[in-house]
Write a structure and sequence with these properties.
CATH class: Alpha Beta
Order of helices and strands: EEEEHEHEHHHHHEHEHH
CATH architecture: 3-Layer(aba) Sandwich
Oligomer: single chain
CATH superfamily: Alpha/Beta hydrolase fold, catalytic domain
Length: 295
């Protein structure tokens, strides 16, 4: 039995648009996007999970088709709270989290709150090493009103993709659509300003104490979150795997979806859903071993 694919979930900050696919009794996987994308980022990933797993992909508050209130906080700590409310509303206790960019910071906070059994972090913000200088420059452009959200989103993908030609024009327009007009531009500026570097620094010891599998996936040429951060994250978590993808940059789910979506599925299947491997004719999947826990 499948749950409704599209729904809205009320939180203390506003209503979130949530894509919810799969058997409600199956292990749930929460997908968390970052700036300046939406749940559309996961379009190659979400369909792979059902029926083995339930896929839940919300638009963050202030992004995509979710509400864009003028007065609700949009930082990663607040967003983690809204997503906890979504999980509670959907009756989800056990979850794995797949997250990208500053969505990865939200995922780390949810893990610290005991809401994650497995993490998959792609080009994630971490520690006190965010926002990066390219991100700060984008924020300055938005704050000065020197450019429109459409242009900022274009520039972000130009800088942040190693294979810009792989991003369909209709996908770019879908990312831009929620920020059309003066109200949309103001909402975009509020979201950009919320990427403030607050919320992760000082939590290293708590994160290192987590005994959960963590898969760190990174674009080897990421200009926003350099691979050195990936190395540091992988060293931090006792049960981690690390994969660097050559030729890719920050927007890894757009740069190499055909490569990484099967990897993520196999990782979740084995470490989280605990399902046996079933071979089907498909591209070869690279099995990455987990590092041994430091006891």
């Amino acid at each position: 039995m499948s749950v409704d694919a599209a729904r809205r979930v009320r939180t203390s900050g506003g209503d979130l648009a949530v894509l919810d696919l799969g058997d409600p009794e199956a292990p749930a996987v929460l997908f968390v996007h970052g700036f300046p994308t939406s749940s559309l980022l996961w379009r190659a990933f979400v369909p792979m999970l059902p029926p083995a797993m339930r896929a839940v992909a919300p638009d963050l508050l202030g992004a995509g088709d979710s509400d864009k209130p003028e007065d609700a906080p949009l930082g990663i700590e607040a967003q983690a709270g809204y997503l906890e409310e979504v999980l509670d509303a959907l009756g989800i206790e056990r979850t794995a989290i797949v997250a990208h960019s500053h969505g990865g910071g939200i995922a780390q906070l949810l893990a610290l709150r005991g809401r994650a059994e497995v993490l998959v972090l792609m080009d994630s913000i971490a520690f006190d090493e965010w926002p990066s200088e390219p991100m700060r420059e984008l924020q300055r452009l938005v704050a000065r009103g020197d450019t429109f959200p459409d242009a900022v989103i274009d520039v972000a993908f130009d800088i942040g993709m190693g294979h810009r030609d792989r991003l369909p024009t209709e996908a770019v327009r879908a990312y831009q659509r929620p920020f059309a007009g003066p109200d949309g531009a103001a909402a975009f500026a509020r979201w950009a300003a919320s990427i403030d570097g607050v919320g992760l620094a000082g939590h290293e010891d708590e994160l290192a104490a987590l005994r959960i599998p963590v898969f760190v996936l990174w674009g080897e040429e990421d200009p926003f979150s350099p691979p050195a951060i990936a190395d540091r994250l992988s060293e931090l978590f006792p049960m981690s795997s690390l994969a660097l993808l050559p030729g890719c940059r920050h927007f890894l789910p757009e740069d190499a979806p055909q490569a990484i979506a099967p990897l993520v599925y196999e990782y979740l299947r084995s470490t989280y859903a605990k399902l046996p491997h079933e071979h089907e004719p498909a591209p070869t999947v690279l099995e990455l071993g987990r590092r041994l826990s430091r006891e």
